[in-house]
């Protein structure tokens, strides 16, 4: 069974798909983040444009932040 999962996830692209991510649903849809760099303008899915400056804080939908957190642009404030 494990080899089927690995084969399936790797067939979805170079990096595959991690099926183990977010096994528990998030407690809230919005999170507070702190910008770690001067990133500049960033457009959200709804068309809102933010100016992301180092040390600025934002309360945003989790789905808008996840990639920027992985890139090191945002730090999740707990």
Automatic annotation (TrEMBL):
The lineage of its organism: Eukaryota, Metazoa, Ecdysozoa, Arthropoda, Hexapoda. It holds the Pfam family PSF1_C. CDD domains: GINS_B_Psf1. InterPro entries: GINS_Psf1, PSF1_C. Component of the GINS complex. It comes from the Eukaryota. This is DNA replication complex GINS protein PSF1. Transmembrane segments: none annotated. Required for correct functioning of the GINS complex, a complex that plays an essential role in the initiation of DNA replication, and progression of DNA replication forks. GINS complex seems to bind preferentially to single-stranded DNA. Belongs to the GINS1/PSF1 family. Residues 27-77 form the DNA replication complex GINS protein PSF1 C-terminal domain. GO terms for biological process: DNA strand elongation involved in mitotic DNA replication.
């Amino acid at each position: 069974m494990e080899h089927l999962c690995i084969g399936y996830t790797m067939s979805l692209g170079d990096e595959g798909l991690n099926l183990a991510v977010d096994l528990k649903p998030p407690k809230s849809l919005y999170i507070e983040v702190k910008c770690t760099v001067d990133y500049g303008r960033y457009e959200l899915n709804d068309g809102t444009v933010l100016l992301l400056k180092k040390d600025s804080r934002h309360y945003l939908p989790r789905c808008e932040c996840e990639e920027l957190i992985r890139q090191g642009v945002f730090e999740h404030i707990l």
